[in-house]
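User: Hey, quick favor. My workstation is busy. Could you predict this chain's structure for me?
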Amino acid sequence: MRLQRIFAATATLAALTTLSTACEDPAKAGPPAAKPSASPAASTAPTAGAPAQASPTAAGAAPATLAEAQAYVRKYTSCEDLSTGPADRVNLAGYAPVGAWSVTERGICSDTKEQDEIVLSMVSDMKAHQQAYKDHITKRLDEGYWDAGLYDPYLVGKSFVATARKTGTGLALVKSDLRVLVCNPDFTVPEGYKKEKALVDGCVLTDFVNARDGRGSPVKGPALASAGSIEELRNLVSPKAVDCTEMLVTNEHIASIDYQPVVGRDVAGAGVKQRAVCGKLGGATRAHNLNWLDLVADMKALQTLSKESQLAEVGHQRSLTQSKLLVGTNVAVESNNPAVRKALYKLGFLRLDCEPAFSAPAGSRIRPAQVDGCVLTDFERPGV
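Assistant: No problem, here it is.
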């Protein structure tokens, strides 16, 4: 009898257990299955006596290893052949070595899309790293390099730094959570771009990529000027920028001791279709306030002529009477008056600059020119 009561109790308990399980929410019937690791790099080696566990996914730009940093960068551009061996692809003389600036590990991968090499540096203390970078830029500024740090695609995350050498790589990486670190006091984040506080005072984080060649992040500004005739060009620039109360339409060469045009006697060879000069021509008195207007048929030819003239001045004292070439899409203005040029920038003209190693502060308009080695810009260095 006692044995029968035990069997009965056991049967009743089993029935209750079955009923309880059947009434539970199926979604809560047991612990969720562990998600598989996304890649071998996302797992860590097991410790003694403990089962292997997947490492947490890197939050934003905060990978824990070089392999994870590579995987993060690959979401935005290519990063192939990661290597931590001897630097046979990049001269690392200007990079912080492992052990300095809180860098714990460093590797190099290839951006095959941009034909670039990316240096990845894992950082244990990002604030200390940013301070070291700022100190480096400050030292360069003290040495007279006014553009130190203005053109460095130095992209920082929470746990690593990606340094690109080419503009295209930088443009791809700022689409991520990485931000360009800039510690040059002359830098201003252009309108429309992110401005975030860095971990150290005097620096800023941004998604703006500055570039010497004008192929960086675009800066807002008026469209390049254009006109269908000399008269239309006159109406565009006068009287806001150029005083064309007196204007002579002629392709003949006109110059003055105080005003030297860019285009010489061969107007057609310079790519100019029609030409005019505004201002008071010489006569009983010296010429005054001369500026030349050009309707351009071949912009590349005109820019090539100006480039040759500019390169001939390198190493020599610039003549203040020599006009500078400002261009639009099919028009140009030649002026040696800084006030006139400043007003023309607001009307959609940009100055052709072919100075070797040209550089300009962030916020300046820089566009590619039609000739190699030159850019179009609204920035003028002192003495230009």
